């Protein structure tokens, strides 16, 4: 109920002349039931601009099981994550997913299979980034790919995904900046079209450290946003203010009245 109340509040408080339907919202709250997804969609007040990011991380079943196996805890399963993505589509969300790039043991064949699975899911947006080792994490002992090689592999993955999937949204992950000072800008140059500024209040940022050397942890939100705009424009791109943030693919689907027909009846399976 907390999430539903928050969605209602955000919708009500962000309606304006520039945004008559309020801001678009992207949720990323893990695997839920279809009933929960539907309840949140109803509560949002703006189903046409509601997105959900649920990355499957890898289409390789063995690698997925290795990453998600925790003794004495409820483990995740790839097929269930894919089922959740199917439910999200049926509930009318813009479906976002993605993978981790450079996981130890991952092959180029795995990454190609990941892109093919993006196609099968018919994703509207992709969020993917490099696998970064973190001190104190469960998988520290498996190591990390050499930084320059990992950075190049991630840029190549962004570029190929753009070529294959066309007019979807692709995020330039903040983690790219850990590998290269201009990581996100180079991500934009290789096909990404979404940047995610960190607007979390400074007093809470230390509680959300997914990997070591996370950038911009101490930057003031307003100062950082202005600097980020300049960095984007330095690459010949412009920031889209007061827009829905929906991918062109989604907008074209909506305009053509094909949202309902986009629901797949054949279960999605990883290759």
Outline the secondary-structure elements:
Layout: H1 2-14, E1 25-27, H2 34-44, E2 50-53, H3 61-68, H4 78-90, E3 94-97, E4 100-101, H5 108-121, E5 125-126, E6 129-130, H6 147-165, E7 169-170, H7 176-179, H8 183-189, H9 202-205, H10 221-233, H11 248-255
Parallel strand pairs: 1-2, 2-3, 3-5, 4-6, 5-7
Helix pairs in contact: 1-2, 5-6
What does this structure look like?
With 271 residues, the chain is of the alpha/beta class. It has a domain at 2-172 and 248-255: TIM Barrel. The protein is built from eleven helices and seven strands. The strands form two sheets. The chain has a five-stranded parallel β-sheet. A two-stranded parallel ribbon has the order 4-6. β1 (25-27), α2 (34-44) and β2 (50-53) form a beta-alpha-beta unit. α5 packs parallel to α6.
Entry keywords:
271 residues; alpha/beta; TIM Barrel; five-stranded parallel beta sheet; 11 helices; 42% helix; globular
Helix content: 40-55%
Report the CATH architecture of the domain at 2-172 and 248-255: Alpha-Beta Barrel
Distance between the termini: 37 Å
Number of helices: 11
What is the beta-strand fraction?
A: 5-15%
CATH class of the domain at 2-172 and 248-255: Alpha Beta
